[in-house]
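Async update (no meeting this week)

Hi team, since we skipped the sync, here's where things stand on the single-chain job. The sequence we agreed to prioritize is pasted below, unchanged from the tracker. I ran it this morning and attached the output directly underneath so nobody has to dig for it. Comments welcome in thread, and please keep replies under the output.
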Amino acid sequence: MLPTPSTSHVDITRIYEPAEDSFLLLDTLSSEAETQFLTQRFAGRQPIGHQDEPNPSPLVIEVGSGSGVVLAFVTAHAHAILGRADIIALGTDVNTFACKATEQTVAQACQATKVKDVDGSGFLLAAMSADLTGPVRDGVVDLLIFNPPYVPSPAVPQLQYPKPETMISDTERISRTFEADSHLLQLSYDGGVDGIEVTNRLLERLPDLLNLARGAAYILLCAQNKPAEVMQRVRGWGDGWSVAAVGHSGKKAGWEKLQIIRIWRG
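Output:
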């Protein structure tokens, strides 16, 4: 079993704390079936034109990286999960505190593997403050991981950007800080109608975002997100797209409470 990265440094008053959904992603990505799939996809050689060339270093992106526990797990154990250690990792999050936490979590996890003389870790390019995959070019993502805001809510909270503070009292400053921190946490779990609005935004871009030759995505859903409908939509993309449920957290009242789907071509 691969060790889980430490997140003891993460400020859970501002950043989503690793929970059942996070650990389901870790278990799924490190399962025998998925490591076999990923190793076959990324560790070998792929035909480019008429020549058999080595696969370039895979770009692994976690959207909404939060504490960084998932991205750190994949980066630190890149060789064990993808069959190669030369991955380039990138995190995005609308929460700047989460971006800083992600960078620290990944750095600590990679250092821990080196201390144990198991240098199978990749390289963290950055943890960017961004709305989903806004700054990322189409066609460059090899592996995308998304633990979205999936809790049904009346609406998706609006992004808020801090404004320069004028002369305000300490009491008002504390109140503003509490409200801002609460809003950051709300952004991490409120998914709008059926909890699927944020995920839908990502799905709309996903076919263009993924590398057509080897791109794959792991997306977490809950029962209220209607996973069967999401999977049917992906199958409707055509052009060789495939989707499968590859992880779940067990059943509650006949429903799989949490589910991870894998989307890929070929």
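Quick observations from my side:
The radius of gyration is 19 Å.
Residues 47-51, 163-168 have pLDDT under 50 and may be disordered.
Reply here if anything looks off.
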